[in-house]
Amino acid sequence: MTSVDRLGWQPTLFAPTLNRFELLKLKPDFPLRSYTLRVYRNHGVEQVLSALPPFLAFRGLEASINLSDYDDALTFGERTADVCLVWIDFDRYERLGDEELSDFVLERLDDLRASGDGLIVVANAPCDSARASALNPALQDWVDRMANVQILDLYSITTGLGESAFNIRRQHLTATRLSDASCLQAARQLGLCTALSRLDTPIKALAVDLDNTIYHGVLGEDGPINLTLTDDHRLLQEKLVELHLKGVFLVICSKNEAVDVKELFRVRTDFPLKPEHIQNWQVSWEGKANGIVEAAKVLQIGVDAFLLIDDNLGELTSVGMQLPNIRLAYAGTSPRHTLVALQTYPALRQRASSVTDALRSADVAANSERAALAAAASDPRAYLASLEVELTLVPNPLEDRARLAEMCVKTNQFNLAIARLSDIEVDRFLRDPQRRAVMVYMRDRLADSGSVAVIFMRREGDVLIVEELCVSCRAMGRHLEDVMISAAIQGTLSELPAQVVRFVHKVGPRNQPGRSWLARFAATDLGEADGSIDIEWDMGAIAALIESAPVTVQWSKT
């Protein structure tokens, strides 16, 4: 299914009010990737699962579903699955107090988590539940602490639906008091928002049209004052700002006069979306595909990391035909449809931002000044010295576990082993005394880049094995790979002594930069196949290399 094929499904999938009949009309005529979904339940879930296929098919997926018996004891039974959904009506536990119920549920979830690596999705208590105020915060706290788990937010769904969220009269038929509207929205959240990180390329940037997309009207015809910011358009702009604050790049991609767009954002002080929220402007009468390619170069990300939002089907189709891997969102139905798309589009960041997310925009903005300094410098050392770079290396940063996994999944160019470690695999790695995951944080006098590299290492006898090595594209270009990687290995060897360092490497579709670095660093030819390279590690020589670099390097345990 191409991005253009997805356009016809969007008015149905992203409708503010879902229609089961219209959903069931959506039949894929393209191949789907299958995954296993195990559902543990004590009330009816069939209304959710019957509406799930079109949402999954939009992602190119289908689920092989295995239903448990109704089980208030949460014994869980068979546990092998890619995704486990825990679908529980917590009000059935009338004999347990709130604290007793929380303890019981979390103990059973701990047991489920310990028995497998698959994603666990837990439906929380809906808004009318007597248990919601006590149990839901405990569930959220558990999710925040654990690896590879997620909330299916029934509370938010039912709160939004209000009186239409429940249908007690049909409970004897459906085995759940949730209404069909609630079940349809739960299916959408489960189908589109389940974080199957290995199956979705993350969306890192939104390319956003202007006219009749983020306001009503045409700038070139109506002028900035006469454009209408409806309540729904305001909510849409607020959502764009929210995503920006969560680390998603915003690019204005509009066929308009640049001077008119500049005047628009100067005059319309009522717009929630401000110039400071925009990382790149592609405003011209050229094709939008070219603008997105240029924005990708500036932001140092792939075109496949973009979602283009436009009200013009012709523009979307043209861009989709030229850039087959881009994602497309049709904004021509209504701003409410577009808002739902931004709330539920697969692989679009919805979670709370990390420190690195908050720093990313400022770091990108500083790139032009770095480029000017590089052009003016007499040599690379002078350039680095002018930047006043500081590197902080932190072994096993448990609080940054999600970022470690994210870098494994997202990094393509400087990625030696392409291991794509999951959140739970990273969590287990961090707790093994014979392993280290060293995160590298970078800042210079222009901006704080946050976490830019991670090296996963394991000691086996007298060999320290570098199992994975990822360097963000934001760190590349400052010629610090030797220093960052050497310092991480040097610090690890001080805690896990070994004589030989072994680099595992694989051939991937885009990781030639990482392989080229290893070939140069090891002074050898890697060939065209997967393999490993052993280096007799000279602690003295490496210490001299690090000390001679015009940067500050600090090994930190915090």
Briefly say what this structure is.
This protein is α/β, with parallel strands linked by helices. The protein contains 24 helices and 17 strands.
List the helices and strands and how they pair.
Blueprint: H1 3-7, H2 10-13, H3 20-24, E1 33-41, H4 46-49, H5 52-58, E2 61-70, E3 83-87, H6 98-114, E4 119-123, H7 132-145, E5 149-152, H8 154-161, H9 171-174, H10 180-193, E6 205-208, H11 219-226, H12 231-245, E7 249-254, H13 258-267, E8 280-283, H14 288-299, E9 306-310, H15 313-322, E10 327-330, H16 335-344, H17 355-365, H18 367-376, H19 380-387, E11 390-395, H20 401-410, H21 423-430, E12 435-443, E13 448-460, E14 463-471, H22 481-495, E15 500-505, H23 512-522, E16 531-536, H24 539-548, E17 552-555
Helix pairs in contact: 5-10, 6-7, 8-10, 11-13, 12-16, 18-19, 20-21, 22-24
CATH superfamily of the largest domain, by name, is Gcn5-related N-acetyltransferase (GNAT)
* Multimeric status of the protein: single chain
Total DSSP E strands: 17
Counted by DSSP, the helix tally is 24
The CATH topology of the largest domain: Aminopeptidase
What would you say the CATH architecture of the largest domain is?
A: 3-Layer(aba) Sandwich
The low-pLDDT segments are none
Question: How helix-rich are the residues, as a percent range?
Answer: 40-55%
**What structural class is derived from the secondary structure elements?**
alpha/beta
Q: What is the straight-line distance between the termini?
A: 46 Å
- Characterize the overall form: globular
